[in-house]
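Bit of a strange request maybe. I'm writing a small parser for structure token strings and I need a real example to test against, not something I typed by hand. Could someone generate the tokens for this chain?
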Amino acid sequence: MKRLEDVWPLFGLQLSTPRLTLNPVRDEQLPGLVDAVLAGIHDPAVMPFSVPWTDAPRDELIKGTVQHQWRQRCTVGPENWTINLAVCLGGRVIGVQDLSARNLSIERTVHTGSWLTQAEQGKGLGTEMRSAVLQFAFDHLGAQWAVSDAASWNAASLTVSRNLGYGHNGVSRTEVRPGEAATIHHVRLPAESFNRPGWAISVTGFEAARGSLLAR
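Reply from user aminoacidic:
Good idea to test on real output. This should exercise your parser:
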């Protein structure tokens, strides 16, 4: 009998760091993912996301979180993809690190975004999970640049970017809630400027998943 990763190879992909494992969100991880969301990601007084999905009522938030994961899977193809990686600490889902690209073989650029449940913030895990996907993008996918962004008030995210070697790449204004705008700082990291950590990721399942992410 075939395994799930035999028919959807991305489910076999896993990145491992000294403390974390990251893998495309599987259905059996959805309850843990919802628990992490409900535990709280940010101060309700501010909105770190360009789409204010965490403002939804509890029942809608649970449903929307699950639907979003299913929806993202359906759009994955070599020319345009987003992978939501469940970030696990000791086998428990504590956040999501996403990695996306459009025409990667031509543009050579990836975009990252992430969140961590509040109880796990301030421990260096945000830097560790971003470092993991940057290593994967530069060393396995052949990316030459990585871009990201964060609201001007989000010092934690901007500090992670600065420490990893990103440079300023402009600002914009975005409506993050109805009638409420935020200044967004955009950052860009050339592969040669990446401040690599003192460890390297372990990657399993990439060869089988390659065709889902890279044009032949």
